Every structure is written in C-alpha cells, then in structure tokens.
Amino acid sequence: MVEAHKQGNLTVSTHKSGDMVRIVFTDDGPGIAPENLKHVLTRFIPQKEWEREPGLGLSICHGIVSAHGGRIYAESTVAKGASFTVELPFQ
After folding, report:
1. Cα(1)–Cα(86) distance, rounded to whole angstroms?
2. Residues 45-85: pLDDT tens digits?
3. Which residues are registered as beta bridge partners of 82?
4. What is the C-alpha to C-alpha distance for residues 90 and 38, in angstroms, rounded to an integer?
5. Minimal CA–CA distance to 26: which of 86, 84, 91?
6. Is 20 buried (19+), middle (13-18) or exposed (0-12) by CB count in 10 A?
7. Distance between CA 34 and CA 67 in Å, rounded?
8. Measuring CA to CA, which residue among 91, 84, 68, 81 is closest to residue 30?
C-alpha cells in the first residue's frame, strides 16, 4: 500500500453466519495481477511470476486456517486493492 500511494488503508471486518465466522482484510494497495492471484497462497512462487519474493506468510496462514477447519481466499482488482477472507468454524 505504501509503495502504491505513500500511505494506505487496511480495513478489517468480521461477520458471524451460522456456525462460521468470516474475517475480511481489505487494503487499498496496488492489487494483485490475475496471473499471480491464483498462486498467492502457494508456498513457492517462481520469480518470473512475481516481481519480488512475497515470503511465506500467506502459505503459513493457509496452513493454520485449514488445520482449524476453515478456508482462506483472496480477491483483487489491479490498482484498486485486495481482500483476503478467512472463514473459520465458530465453536
């Protein structure tokens, strides 16, 4: 976000629906190109597909969320930001 705008906004929202809790993290950064979006939760992304190494953070999150019976997914529009949604069972 900072690289795109020299500032940035991150919004976190939560919602309970039935036996699931949904947490949505939305930013106003540069977004993720469609060809990279399908790999964003993958541990190793070839350098050709990504300008710089994004690290292991999202793949680790994916593993933790999955281990707790949930799911995580991303949506993005280039130049308009990205949203990451985490859905977890409510106990």
Report:
1. 20
2. 554 545 555 556 788 899 999 999 999 999 999 989 999 99
3. 27, 76
4. 27
5. 84
6. middle
7. 27
8. 81
